[in-house]
Amino acid sequence: MTHSAQAAQIEAYDAMAPLYAEYSGRYCAYLDAVDQLVIDRLKPGIRLLDLGSGDGRRLHKIAAHHGLTDVVAVEPSSAMAALCRKTTGFAVHQLFGDELDRLPQTGFDAITVLWNVFGHMADSSVRLKTLGLLKAKLAPGGTIMLDVNNRHNRRAYGRWTVFRRRLIDALAFDDKRGDVHYQWQIGNQSLPSSGHLFTPAEMAGLFQRAGLGVAERLSVNYASGAVCDSPLDGQLFFRLRHGSSGRAGLRG
């Protein structure tokens, strides 16, 4: 995805903002499952940063569960940011992920980046820069939690399709194979959109280059919300840490 495509993506989010609740409701089993994974790994009293907050409903739910008040939201779409402010009452900064060096706040115990936000960034260099900036925003022992769409998800794409993809990727990996274009169908409207589907190895490489360790990796079924350990049976959920000391913001 090019930077122009990323700008077009934001225009699409601006256009769909009034219909976003309806659209996201179609995927409530998956979204609720990811929200619960996040909730179970946080605790009261922490500082939370959320990148790609959308309309803010999920952030409000997660924060309210633990009574969190020291929360900062980042959302590049102006229409979505307006909804997020209204929904949450939190500070909402209209920035892209690779602009987080302009965010004055730092020292967050936990950072969330939910529903394939990384898949809507321009390319791997932007994703890597964003990971580095997120890492810089963490408090010692802090954690980053994110989920991305998985090209090797055999529950979504079928066993043989994923077998072929894994074989080709093993022989000659090219991240451009993960770039996709599609239409959002909402009511009577059809909105063009684009994104990126990741492989487990692709994400592992980004984390390694960013100096982030994987504390936990799970898969979440996009249709049912079922959680499992296999990297081939759902979308990918990661809990990352900066270094190996401390577990601030984590439970268990």
Name some characteristics of this structure.
252 residues, 38% helix, 9 helices, alpha/beta
Tell me about this structure.
The protein has nine helices and ten strands. It has helices at 3-16, 20-25, 28-40, 57-66, 78-88, 124-137, 154-157, 159-171, 200-210; strands at residues 48-51, 71-74, 91-93, 108-113, 138-148, 179-186, 189-196, 213-220, 227-228, 235-241. Strands 3-2-1-4-5-10-8-9 form an eight-stranded mixed β-sheet, with helices on both faces. Strands 6-7 form a two-stranded antiparallel sheet. α3 (28-40) packs parallel to α4. The longest helix is centred in the first third of the chain and has 14 residues, at 3-16. It is globular, with a radius of gyration of 17 Å. Residues 244-252 have low confidence and may be disordered.
Lay out the secondary structure.
Layout: H1 3-16, H2 20-25, H3 28-40, E1 48-51, H4 57-66, E2 71-74, H5 78-88, E3 91-93, E4 108-113, H6 124-137, E5 138-148, H7 154-157, H8 159-171, E6 179-186, E7 189-196, H9 200-210, E8 213-220, E9 227-228, E10 235-241
Parallel strand pairs: 1-2, 1-4, 2-3, 4-5
Antiparallel strand pairs: 5-10, 6-7, 8-9, 8-10
Helix pairs in contact: 3-4, 6-9
Q: In what order do the strands lie side by side in the largest sheet?
A: 3-2-1-4-5-10-8-9
How far apart the termini lie comes to: 38 Å
What ranges have pLDDT less than 50 throughout 5 or more consecutive residues? 244-252
Q: What's the main sheet like?
A: 8 strands, mixed
Strand content: 15-25%
- What is the number of strand segments? 10
| Helix-strand makeup class | alpha/beta
Mean pLDDT: 93
Radius of gyration: 17 Å
Percentage of residues assigned to helices? 25-40%
* Total of DSSP H or I helical runs spanning 4+ residues: 9
H/E order of the elements? HHHEHEHEEHEHHEEHEEE
Principal-axes geometry comes out as globular
